[in-house]
Inverse folding.
């Protein structure tokens, strides 16, 4: 499932970038060097040519901010809720802590939301259980993989949003004498992030703080005999990450 | 979905169950909730004498007249008083557990059912397998004791003319192939009763037994379920240790099912049985009937085929087909009314 994302990342990295004629505008567009530092040598203008055709710089060029292109990486800590309704109308709810990664490439490109879940509380048909009391391991994974758009907003804010395919895996092997529970709902979802450039830099990139919201509608669980009538997933997280190169 | 014969069904259930996880299970569900019962075992034939058998175990009453009970039905269809989630009809085997109390001398009995178990007759990886409903409810019966018989009426599932199992077992022979087949049918009742209480048995939920789990016998002993290997060969082991769900029928040994992901494979190993009718009168105690059920003749290829080889120690041997209705039936073997 991650393969398309990796492919998209590769294509995004190889995508040629057209520099605008306006040098001021050029500062806001990713250069080949930013997309891939290995391209820096070939993308840099020849000195002689630069001497002969370089336009006259404006008297006070604006400061070069991060572009909308290139990679974004962020680590996220938050909470996730999964609702599952079975074919026999049992209603399950899992409340989990989530520790995730959000990565995306390009102003229009692929994104990956991957979260490790620790289910803390579970409900079935009105009864609530602390998972620590019944399950020897509490683990889960949530994956949202899709295509998003990126926008720059005032005040050093940047927003990403887009749809994708979604899957959750919840794994609760029982303590001795208790029954195991697993679920693996699949569906469609969307993810959105809002990040703020702090002004600090690390690895030549802007350090960002922000938040993310992911939601999904799940409608299939083939590994569980199609017992999922429908379900929802909602995740809220705080993020710290690396924005565009500055 | 597979609907195998009663005899062969139990083997194929294990094999097919390894292919998927089955429907969602119950959260925080305890696997074994059986309370031991010391009491009398009664047995009756159901409406279809060829396939329907009912076993009733009633414990000693406490000072308030309340006794524990367990009831097991093995049939082509054993409808349960309350639905059991993920077990659609027809139900191949069902068990009720709870308490039994009688008021007055008119035979009015109230059964407070605490647990209802059911095993679907249709099985396979997509099935839920054996499940339990923990919702309590009450059943009202009329129970009349006449001689060594217990005539139960008032509920279609439990109604019947029961005889003491110890008396019925005393009529079993040991010398012929038919005797061997009858010993198998009697032992198989206990095996099927145990499978009804193994949560997930016959469905995808069996994968949970990567961590072994033990269920106690209602009267004595235990049965332990374990699974090894998530890649073929996948082996499911059901080990009986002095397991006794019916007074006088004890099981020891391991039933091994080995399959690939496609559910194809075979069974192996031997489960030994000891049929020793309990009797309060030492003068009437008979020599136990001992022997074994060899599963190595069973192959699994979407459904079970082959036969169980049954040996009575110092007596007859016989093969019982995994396909078709029990022959001879339990009612025939035990001369049930």
């Amino acid at each position: 499932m991650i393969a398309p994302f990796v492919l998209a990342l590769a294509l995004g990295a190889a995508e040629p970038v057209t520099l605008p004629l306006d040098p001021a505008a050029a500062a806001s567009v990713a250069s080949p060097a930013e997309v891939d530092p290995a391209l820096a040598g070939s993308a840099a203008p020849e000195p002689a040519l630069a001497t002969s055709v370089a336009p006259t710089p404006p008297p006070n060029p604006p400061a070069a901010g991060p572009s909308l292109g290139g990679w974004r990486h962020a680590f996220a800590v938050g909470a996730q809720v999964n609702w599952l309704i079975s074919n026999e109308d049992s209603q399950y709810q899992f409340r989990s802590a989530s520790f995730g990664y959000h990565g995306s490439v390009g102003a229009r490109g692929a994104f990956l939301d991957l979260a490790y879940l620790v289910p803390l509380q579970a409900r079935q048909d009105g009864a609530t259980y602390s998972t620590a009391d019944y399950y020897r391991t509490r683990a889960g994974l949530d994956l949202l993989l899709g295509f998003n758009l990126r926008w720059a907003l005032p005040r050093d804010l940047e927003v990403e949003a887009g749809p994708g395919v979604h899957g959750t895996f919840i794994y609760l092997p029982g303590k001795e004498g208790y029954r195991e529970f697993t679920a693996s709902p699949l569906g469609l979802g969307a993810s959105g992030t809002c990040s703020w450039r702090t002004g600090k830099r690390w690895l030549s990139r802007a350090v960002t703080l922000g938040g993310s919201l992911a939601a999904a509608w799940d409608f299939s669980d083939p590994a569980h005999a199609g017992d999922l009538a429908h379900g929802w997933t909602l995740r809220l997280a705080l993020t710290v990450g690396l924005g565009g190169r500055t | 979905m597979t609907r195998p014969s009663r005899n062969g069904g139990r083997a194929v259930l294990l094999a097919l169950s390894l292919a998927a996880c089955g429907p969602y299970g119950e959260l925080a569900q305890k696997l074994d909730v059986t309370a031991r019962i010391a009491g009398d075992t009664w047995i009756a034939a159901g409406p279809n004498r060829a396939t329907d058998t009912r076993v009733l175990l009633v414990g000693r009453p406490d000072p308030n007249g309340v006794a524990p009970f367990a009831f097991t039905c093995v049939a082509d269809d054993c409808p349960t008083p309350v639905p059991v989630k993920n077990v659609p009809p027809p139900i191949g085997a069902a068990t009720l557990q709870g308490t039994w109390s009688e008021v007055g001398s008119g035979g009015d009995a109230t059964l407070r059912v605490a647990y209802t178990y059911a095993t679907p007759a249709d099985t396979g990886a997509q099935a839920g397998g054996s499940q339990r409903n923990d919702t309590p409810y009450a059943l009202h019966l009329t129970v009349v004791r006449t001689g060594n018989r217990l005539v139960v009426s008032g509920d279609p599932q439990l109604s019947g003319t029961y005889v003491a199992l110890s008396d019925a077992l005393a009529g079993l022979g040991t010398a012929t192939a038919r005797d061997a087949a009858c010993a198998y049918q009697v032992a198989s009742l206990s095996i099927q009763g145990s499978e009804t209480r193994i949560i997930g048995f016959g469905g995808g939920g069996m994968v949970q037994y990567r961590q072994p789990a033990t269920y106690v016998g209602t009267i004595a002993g235990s049965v332990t379920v374990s699974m090894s290997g998530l890649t073929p060969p996948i082996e499911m082991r059901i080990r009986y240790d002095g397991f006794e769900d019916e007074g006088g029928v004890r099981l020891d040994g391991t039933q091994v099912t080995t399959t690939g992901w496609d559910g194809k494979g075979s069974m192996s190993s031997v489960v030994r049985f000891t049929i020793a009718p309990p009797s309060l009168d030492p003068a009437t105690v008979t020599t136990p009937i001992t022997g074994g059920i060899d599963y190595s003749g069973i192959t699994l290829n979407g459904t079970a085929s082959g036969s169980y080889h049954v040996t009575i120690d110092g007596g007859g041997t016989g093969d019982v087909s995994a396909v078709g209705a029990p022959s001879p039936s339990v009612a025939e073997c035990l001369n049930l009314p």
Summary: Residues 248 and 278 of chain B are 6 Å apart (CA to CA).
